[in-house]
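Worked example 3. Consider a protein that binds heme C.
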Amino acid sequence: MKKILSLLVLFCLSTTAAHAGLKVIGKGDSMRLDPARFPSAMKANYEIMRVKCVKCHTLERTIVAIQTGVAPISGQIFDRNATKAYGIKMLRKPDSNMNKAEVKATVDLMNYLLNEAER
Ligand code: HEC
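Given these inputs, the predicted complex is written out as structure tokens:
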């Protein structure tokens, strides 16, 4: 019985860990994500976001949008239907220093993160 109980506890602990949502590190301007549990494709996409999406503002803007489902500046809905439009909007900003492939990588990542944040 004791063994079954401890197995149950272990099982619950591991499912909580797997459904813990987004792991965010730091606050404000130093806010970032911990990509350790990301699938490898998303790790690569995060590297692109970490370099390309901080030219004009910090990652906080993107992370808050994903966590809350609301784009923090415009107050518009930020869901999987909206990520591509935001990506293109950022690409078109003057001197964005991104190409389409890089933006697509970050859009894929945002969609993945929105799924994770829902859990
Ligand atoms: C060339 C500068 C620049 C780059 C590079 C940039 N952004 Fe932005 N971003 C802005 C500006 C300016 C705003 C202010 C609101 C607006 O214009 O949409 C903004 C706003 C945002 C918002 C909030 C939008 C809202 O409506 O509240 C999000 C989310 C965002 N950026 C994500 C990203 C992501 C993801 C990337 C990388 C793919 C990125 N940004 C790269 C300039 C940039």
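Take a moment to read the result before moving on. The beta strands are 24-25, 32-33. Residues 14-19 have pLDDT under 50 and may be disordered.
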